[in-house]
Amino acid sequence: MLTLHVVVDDSAVLVDGEYVKALGPYEELAAAAPQARVRRWPGILTPGLLNPYGPEILESTYHPDPREADTYGTVPIGGERAREIFRADPSRLGASARRGVQRLFAHGTVALAGELTAKAVLEVAQRSGFVFGGRPERLPGPVSLSPKPLVLLPALAVGGPARFAVFDVTDRDDLVRRGASTCVATVIGGRLVYRAR
User: Of 189, 185, 188, nearest to 197 (Cα)?
Assistant: First the structure.
């Protein structure tokens, strides 16, 4: 199925299955593929972000299920409290990682760095479609879903994987200033894995 993703400046990416079929102005791509489903987004289209804190976010942080809000609240839990939760019930690790992946998608993350050692977490991350990248020797700052500095992947290319994120910002400088929480859509393997409500 062909999908045409368009942002406010009318730049667009045509996706065919898991791959980028074409890049260019909306009018040109729409004329070449009139049968394509069109998705319009505010902001800018980027190749997506790499988050260097894969293990910290997915293995060392507990992402509460919304049904546990009375017990654990709704924000991620780190440190000793997370370790206590995982020790008390190791089966929570995989489910927490799935919710962590959704939080990463909501921040335009399409790639992770850092070695995942827990089998359940690694399986979740691999099934999600994340690309795994190298981790710098020195991490840039505190663990975050919107780390500073933001690390964008290389530019999209025709024939390359349909993996990108759209942020509701005016330009890359605005993205750096406002952070990854401005994400409105994340696509991995040609699938829309996150869409802001």
Answer: 185
